[in-house]
Design a protein that fits this description.
It is a single chain. With about 800 residues, the chain is of the alpha/beta class. Strand 8 and strand 9 form a beta hairpin. Helix 4 runs parallel beside helix 5 and helix 8 packs across helix 10. It is globular, with a radius of gyration of 27 Å.
C-alpha cells in the first residue's frame, strides 16, 4: 500500500526537473521536512503543480492521497476534473476542509467534492475547532441547496508533529486533522486482505465506513461536524465484513434532532411554502460508475405521510463513485391546518455494471425522514428571501461588501440564509418569522402569501417582467419590500483591479458590493434610487449603536417618506477631495441611508448597507433595525423613532439621471448573470405548479434579458446542481493517464484563478498577496490565522 501527502509530492516534482531519478529516491526519504519548509516559505501553489502531482500519483498506483491544501475556487475545472480522475482511478483522497471557521459557507475545494473525504477539526474536548470551516457546499446555489460537508472531523488542535529542524512542535489546523484521517484510512485498508482489496476498497466504500462508523458529537450541527468524530474501531467493524453496496449520506433527516439537523429542525414544514430542499450524497461502493434504475419513491409510515409531496432531482449517472439525491418537499394544501410529525422512508435503487459477475450489482438505498409540520402561518409572519439575484465568487471577481476587510476580498461565502446569514436566520426564527428561500425570478412567487420580500446584498440584473410584477405586488397586493444595498462606485472598482500572471490578464470587479444600477431599475417605479458614495462611520438610532461599513447613500426618495441621515465620510474616489477638505475643519455633510415609505397597499424600507446582517465580517449587527423594518413592512407596526415627524420628508430627494451610478461598459456581465441573456423560467426551487413556466399570471415563455452591447454566453447549470438530472454526471469515465475529461464547454478565461497580484495604488490592494485567488491553493495550517504557522 502506498500513501502520499500531496505537499511532499509537489516538492518532489519541482525538484525532479533538476535531479536524477536516483537523487529523487533519496529526497523522498526527507519529504516531510522539505515540504514543511516549502509551504512555510511559499504558502501558495499553482494548479499546474497539482496536475503534475496528480498524474504522478496515478502513474505510480497510489492507494491513499492526503491533500492538506485548498481554495474557494470549485470552478477551477482543470483541477476539479483531475481530482475526479484521481478518484476514478481508485485512489482514496482525503482533504482538509479549510481554516476559515467559524464562518459558514467556507468549505474549500477539493474537500467540498463528494468523491473526496473532507475533514474538519476538533479539539481534545470534542468541540468543533473555531478555525474549522463550516458548510454547506455552495456549488448548488442559487437554484439548489448545498450538500453536507465536512464528511467527518478529527483532532486538529495542538497536535504534536515534527519540526523542520529537530524535535517536535504543536500544530493546529484542518491540515493536521486531514492526515490523521488519512492514517486511519491506511489502517482500515490493512484490514482488507490484499487479494480482496481490488474488489472492495474504493473511495465510496471507505467513505461509507468512515461516516457510518463516526461518533456524532452533541452540540454541533451537520454542517459543522458532518457524520461526527472519526472512530477507527467502529469503521473497522463495518469494513471487515463489507459487501459492495450503495448508500445515502446523511441517511437520516430528523426534524426532532436539534441542533444536529439545523437548519431544518429550526423551521417546520407547512402548506403553501416554497419547497424545502435537502441535498444528500449517493455513495456507490459497487463501482466507479453506477445508474439510478428507477425514480426514488416516498414510503410514508402512516396516513399523515400522504400530506407530504416530494419531487426528486438526482444523478441518473453516478460517477466517480458518488452522485446526489435532492428532495424538494412541500406539504399539500389539504395539510394547511395539520400539526404533527410525518415519518417514512425514501428509497432509491442503484446498479453498477458487473465486475466478474454475470449480472449487474444492485443495491437499494434508504433515506429516513422524520419531519415536523405546523399549520400555515399568517401572511405577516412569512418572509421571502431573494437568493436568485445573488452572484458570488467563483467565477467572477465579486468583491467583499466591506472594503475595510483586508484579508478576504472575495464574496465567496454563498450569501445564503444558511451560510453567512445564518445568525440572522436564527434571529428571525426566534422573533416568530418563517423565512423561505426563492432561487428563481421574482415572477415565481405568489405575493399574496408573504408579508415581506427581503432583498439583501444582490448583484444580478432583473428581467423587465420582474420589475413590472414587483411594482404590482407592492402597490396592489400589499407586499412589503425590504432592501439592504451595498456600495457601488465604478472609479473604485477600476482601482481595485489586479494582474493575473497565469492568464496574463487584468482582473477587475464585475460589480460593486451590490448591483446598484440594477436595484435602481427595480426601485424606479417607486421613485427610489441609491447613489455611488462609499460611506463609513458610527451612528445611533434610539440608543442602538451601529457601524455603517462601506454602505451607499439614498439619492432619490419621494416626498412624504421618512428618511434618516447621518454624517459620514465618503471613501469613494469622488469623495476623496471632500474628505481632504474635511480634515481642514469642515463639517461632514449628512448622508441619507434609511428610508421608509407607504406605496399603495404596500410598504417599502431601504437601507444602504448589508454588512450589519452578514456574519462573515460584521462589525456590529443591526438585527434590531431589521426587526423594526419587518414589523413595518409586514405588519404596518410603526416604531416611534423611525417614524418621527422630524425625519419626514416634505420635499423629495432627487438627483438627475446622469448623477446616478452607471453600469460598467467594459464587463461582459452575461458571463456571470442568471438574467442577462438567459430565459425567464421558474426552476425546481419554486412551487411545483409553476416549474418550467415564467411564473404567476405570465405566459409560459418570454424573451431573454440583454444588456446593450454585450454578446451572450450561457454557462449552463452549475456543477453538482440539484436542478434536474445532472448533465455533468453524463460523462464518459476517464481511463488511467487520460489527460482530459469530456465536459461541457465553458468560458475558460473566467475559471482560471489569479496568482500574483499587481497593486494599482489603493491601500486596500496591499493585502491581495495574502488572498486565495483562483489558481492559488494554500496549505491549511495554524488555526490562529489563515496561513500556516510552521
Amino acid at each position: 500500500m502506498t500513501i502520499l501527502d500531496m505537499g511532499h509530492l509537489l516538492l518532489v516534482l519541482l525538484l525532479v526537473e533538476m535531479q536524477s531519478v536516483s537523487v529523487l529516491l533519496q529526497i523522498q526519504r526527507f519529504m516531510l521536512f522539505a515540504c514543511l519548509l516549502m509551504h512555510s516559505l511559499l504558502q501558495v501553489s499553482y494548479t499546474s503543480w497539482f496536475l503534475d502531482a496528480f498524474n504522478y500519483a496515478i502513474a505510480t498506483n497510489m492507494d491513499v492521497l492526503n491533500l492538506s491544501i485548498g481554495g474557494p475556487d470549485y470552478l477551477d475545472l482543470p483541477f476539479v476534473e483531475k481530482v475526479w480522475e484521481i478518484t476514478a482511478n481508485n485512489i482514496i483522497m482525503v482533504s482538509a476542509i479549510g481554516n476559515d471557521g467559524p464562518l459558514y459557507g467556507t468549505l474549500n475545494n477539493p474537500a467540498d467534492q463528494s468523491d473526496v473525504i473532507g475533514v474538519g477539526g476538533i479539539d481534545y474536548s470534542d468541540h468543533i475547532a473555531s478555525f474549522s470551516s463550516r458548510g454547506m457546499s455552495t456549488w448548488e446555489i442559487p437554484h439548489g441547496y448545498g450538500r453536507v460537508k465536512p464528511d467527518v472531523v478529527a483532532y486538529g488542535r495542538e497536535i504534536m508533529g515534527s519540526k523542520i529542524s529537530t524535535g517536535c512542535k504543536s500544530l493546529s489546523g484542518t491540515s493536521v486533522a486531514s492526515p490523521v484521517v488519512a492514517g486511519v484510512v491506511c489502517l482500515l485498508v490493512s484490514v482488507i486482505p490484499e487479494s480482496s482489496r481490488q474488489d472492495i476498497l474504493n473511495p465510496a466504500s471507505m467513505k461509507q465506513a468512515l461516516v457510518e462508523g463516526a461518533a456524532k458529537l452533541s452540540g454541533p450541527n451537520m454542517y459543522e461536524q458532518g457524520a461526527g468524530r472519526v472512530d477507527l474501531l467502529e469503521s473497522f467493524e463495518i469494513l471487515k465484513n463489507y459487501q459492495p453496496r450503495a448508500s445515502i449520506f446523511p441517511g437520516v433527516l430528523d426534524y426532532t434532532d436539534c441542533p444536529y439537523s439545523w437548519p431544518f429542525c429550526r423551521q417546520p414544514l407547512y402548506a403553501g411554502a416554497m419547497p424545502v430542499i435537502f441535498n444528500a450524497t449517493i455513495l456507490n461502493g459497487m463501482g466507479v460508475i453506477g445508474y439510478v434504475e428507477s425514480p426514488p419513491m416516498w414510503h410514508p409510515s402512516n396516513d399523515e405521510g400522504n400530506l407530504l409531496s416530494i419531487h426528486f432531482t438526482f444523478s441518473e449517472v453516478i460517477w466517480p463513485w458518488t452522485g446526489y439525491l435532492a428532495l424538494h418537499m412541500q406539504i399539500k394544501e389539504e395539510g394547511s391546518q395539520f400539526s404533527g410529525e410525518i415519518e417514512g422512508n425514501v428509497t432509491l435503487q442503484v446498479y453498477s455494471p458487473p465486475q466478474g459477475e454475470k449480472s449487474p450489482r444492485i443495491s437499494t438505498c434508504v433515506l429516513h425522514l422524520k419531519l415536523k409540520v405546523v399549520p400555515t402561518p399568517p401572511r405577516s409572519k412569512r418572509i421571502l428571501w431573494d437568493q436568485f439575484h445573488s452572484i458570488k465568487y467563483p467565477p467572477g471577481y465579486i468583491p467583499r461588501d466591506s472594503l475595510d476587510v483586508r484579508n478576504d476580498i472575495l464574496d465567496w461565502h454563498g450569501d445564503h440564509l444558511h451560510t453567512n446569514f445564518h445568525i440572522m436566520f436564527n434571529m428571525l426564527r426566534d422573533a416568530g418569522y418563517h423565512v423561505e428561500t426563492l432561487g428563481s425570478p421574482l415572477t415565481c412567487f405568489d405575493a399574496s402569501q408573504y408579508g415581506t420580500l427581503l432583498m439583501v446584498d444582490l448583484e444580478d440584473e432583473y428581467f423587465e417582467e420582474e420589475i413590472e410584477k414587483l411594482r404590482d405586488d407592492v402597490m396592489n397586493t400589499g407586499l412589503g419590500l425590504a432592501v439592504f444595498a451595498e456600495w457601488y462606485n465604478v472609479d473604485t472598482m477600476v482601482k481595485m483591479r489586479f494582474f493575473d500572471d497565469n492568464t496574463r490578464s487584468w482582473w477587475t470587479p464585475v460589480t460593486g458590493g451590490a448591483n446598484v444600477p440594477a436595484l435602481n431599475d427595480l426601485l424606479g417605479p417607486f421613485g427610489i434610487a441609491f447613489g455611488d458614495k462609499i460611506l463609513n462611520g458610527d451612528f445611533s438610532i434610539d440608543g442602538e449603536q451601529s457601524r455603517y461599513a462601506s454602505g451607499t447613500d439614498i439619492a432619490r426618495f419621494p416626498a412624504g417618506g421618512f428618511v434618516h441621515s447621518f454624517p459620514f465620510l465618503d471613501s469613494s474616489e469622488s469623495g476623496a477631495t471632500q474628505n481632504v477638505l474635511l480634515t481642514s475643519g469642515m463639517t461632514k455633510a449628512d448622508s441619507p441611508i434609511l428610508g421608509l415609505l407607504d406605496v399603495g397597499e404596500g410598504r417599502i424600507a431601504v437601507y444602504g448597507d448589508s454588512n450589519c446582517l452578514d456574519s462573515s465580517h460584521m462589525v456590529t449587527n443591526c438585527y434590531w433595525l431589521l426587526r423594526k423594518i419587518l414589523d413595518y413592512t409586514s405588519g404596518n407596526i410603526r416604531d416611534s423613532v423611525l417614524f418621527a415627524d422630524s425625519v419626514k420628508k416634505d420635499a423629495a430627494l432627487y438627483v438627475e439621471d446622469h448623477q446616478l451610478p452607471s453600469r460598467r461598459t467594459d464587463v461582459n456581465f452575461s458571463t456571470y448573470s442568471a438574467v442577462v441573456g438567459k430565459e425567464l423560467v421558474c426552476r425546481s426551487d419554486s412551487r411545483y405548479e409553476i416549474w418550467g413556466t415564467k411564473g404567476y399570471n405570465l405566459q409560459v415563455r418570454g424573451r431573454n434579458r440583454r444588456l446593450p452591447g454585450y454578446p451572450v454566453f450561457d454557462l449552463g447549470r452549475g456543477l453538482n446542481s440539484t436542478v434536474g438530472n445532472s448533465n455533468l454526471r453524463r460523462i464518459k469515465p476517464p481511463v488511467k493517464n487520460k489527460s482530459e475529461l469530456d465536459m461541457p464547454v465553458l468560458v475558460a478565461s473566467h475559471w482560471l484563478v489569479p496568482a500574483v497580484v499587481a497593486v494599482t495604488g489603493l491601500l486596500l490592494l496591499l493585502s491581495f498577496w495574502r488572498i486565495r485567488q483562483k489558481r492559488r491553493r494554500r496549505r491549511k495550517g495554524s488555526g490562529s490565522g489563515r496561513f500556516p504557522n510552521l
